Amino acid sequence: MNIVVCVKQIPDPAAPQSLDASHNLNRSGKLILDEADTYGVEMALQLVDKAGAGEVTVVSMGSAADVAGLRNALAMGAAKAVIVSDDALRGTDALGTAKVLAAVIRRESPDLVLAATESSDGYTGTTPVQIAELLGLPSITFAKSVAIDGTTVKVERQTESGYDEVTAPLPALVTVTAGVVEPRYASFKGIMAAKSKPLEVLSVADLSLAEETGPAGARQVITDVVVAESRTAGEKYVDEGDGAQRIVGFLELIKVL
Amino acid sequence: MALSNIWIVAEPSNGSFTTTSLELLTQGRSFGATVSAITWGANAALASVAGEYGATTLYDVGDLGGALPGAPVASALAALVASVGAPDAILIPTSYDGRDIAGRLSARLDRPVLTNVTGLNDDGGLATEHPIFGGSQTVKARFTGEGPGIFVIRAKSFAAEASGGAAASVVAAPSGDVGATGGAIIAATHVEERVGPKLEEAAVVVSGGRGLGEAEKYALIEETAKLLNGAAGASRAIVDAGWVPYSHQVGQTGKTVKPTVYIACGISGATQHMVGMKGSKNIVAINKDPDAPIFQIADFGIVGDVNKVLPALIAALKARA
């Protein structure tokens, strides 16, 4: 069972976010492994463990100036990492990203591809399914549990009103929600081992995709970024045993009561 | 270029279409363009609803035979583009299946997809608005490539209003070639029972977060919601922690709500959450931390322990009943 997990290194969500002059997300600071991706890495490690053979490969696109996030995935237990890093990729949209990642995944020909439902910084939520379409794979999104039964993947998929049991033949792509498994913390041994694990950095030329990526490939222009009409803070009281009565008073004022 | 032709992916739900689908049909109609809907498992009832909301044609992908809609609907759309020509825009609801359809269609047609759209204007083309950073800023964008533009639109971005049109004529969509991509099949469906009004439609929403301390305390949220004839919601943190089912989640990856009043209990106000509730008419927040971001958007805030304030609120509401 060989599994590829798509991961993304993102600016720390706890730090203030901003756009640069060309309206791209400012990624100049420290990058971390998107927490949403740790669930896919953990899920992959558990599935390979259960299968008794195979390995986990993490694939990514973005700046390779800081690869601490990828090392983190390796420290958790992934066998190797591949990142496509190229200045020509700045401003690439979801479809362009999917083309790049699909080209890398094709080289690995895994049994299963895992990804988060969406990244925590861009949250378009379409890249994994675009990858599946480019690779000709079936896909199951929003998995809250994943199991392998022979050559079939069985997933509990979230729905508006509950969940569906969905199956697909392998190879397939599955996106997992946060909470599908509890990600492990990298052990000291894992962190030490990660330093010598393979981490391959590829350029666009290695994949021969140049004409389809970058801002030209995005075919979308940002015309303006404006401050949204904002809500302002209203009254605020410290509860001194009267908090509930004050809320009742407010609900009466707005005629809910 | 004026908009002349718009397609809407209309998701069937309980004999009608989902509310977001109806919102998109209404908005498509407002551009004065010819509106066509694309659905699956069409029947006379769906044709009538589609017509009522302004569609003249209802393309039917047919019975999906238990397959997840993403692959078969995207391939049918691509085949339709090939046979009748590309519309100016294809509008798709932000939903589990909507995002699957949009992603696959984008890759099939080699067209970009613009997601998280909350505003759509015709100024000789389609200009879009997308909230970022928890809704504190709005990005305005324009699709510049060769059509069709694919837009995935968030719930409650527009009002849904029937126009009283005649039933749409049902036309079978050409079946595309799905190959291996159509292999995801639904084996069983589980519906979680919930009582009271639906989260997306309730006039009062009471939501709980990590500040409750433990899963059992979510009963306080449910009881308060019930006493106010409202619905119980949740932050992503406690859904991920497994305290409540995903169907309760409000936020970027959950439901968008716009009730008369939203009562956030023990929710700090991550941008992820705010994007799903900041359109509420009134916001009440109860939180121990006086600096919690939720207070920046709350009309009425109580700095205190939800486990003290909520029992007192429940007692006060019961005393009025």
**What is CATH's topology name of the largest domain in chain B?**
Rossmann fold
Measured as a percent range, the helix fraction of chain A is 25-40%
Amount of beta strand of chain A: 25-35%
Mean pLDDT over all positions of chain B: 93
- Computed CA radius of gyration of chain B, to the nearest angstrom: 21 Å
As laid out across the biggest beta sheet of chain B, the strand order is 7-11-6-1-4-5-12
N-end to C-end Cα span of chain A: 59 Å
Level-1 CATH class name of chain A = Alpha Beta
- The CATH superfamily of chain A is HUPs
Low-confidence stretches of chain B: none
Distance between the termini of chain B: 59 Å
Assembly state (oligomeric)? heterodimer
Order of the strands making up the biggest sheet of chain A: 9-8-7-10-6-1-4-5-11
Average predicted local confidence, pLDDT of chain A: 91
Net shape of chain B: elongated
Number of domains of chain B: 2
Mass-distribution shape of chain A = globular
CATH class of the largest domain in chain B: Alpha Beta
Order of helices and strands of chain A: EEEHEHEHEHEEEEHEHHEEH
Tally of DSSP helical segments of chain A? 8
What does this structure look like?
The complex is a heterodimer of chains A (257) and B (321). Chain A is an alpha/beta fold and 257 residues long. Chain A has one domain (3-218): HUPs (Rossmann fold), CATH 3.40.50. A nine-stranded mixed β-sheet of chain A has the order 9-8-7-10-6-1-4-5-11, sandwiched between helices. A two-stranded antiparallel sheet of chain A has the order 2-3. Chain A has helices at residues 35-51, 68-76, 94-108, 127-135, 188-194, 204-207, 214-218, 243-253, and strands at 3-6, 9-11, 31-33, 56-61, 80-84, 112-116, 139-149, 152-159, 162-169, 172-176, 199-202, 220-227, 235-238. Chain B has 321 residues and is of the alpha/beta class. Chain B folds into two domains: 5-182, 3-Layer(aba) Sandwich (Rossmann fold), CATH 3.40.50.620; 204-320, Rossmann fold (3-Layer(aba) Sandwich). Chain B contains eight helices and 18 strands. The radius of gyration of chain B is 21 Å and the shape is elongated. The mean pLDDT of chain B is 93. At the A-B interface, helix 3, helix 4, strand 7, strand 8 and strand 9 of A face helix 3, helix 4, strand 7, strand 9 and strand 10 of B.
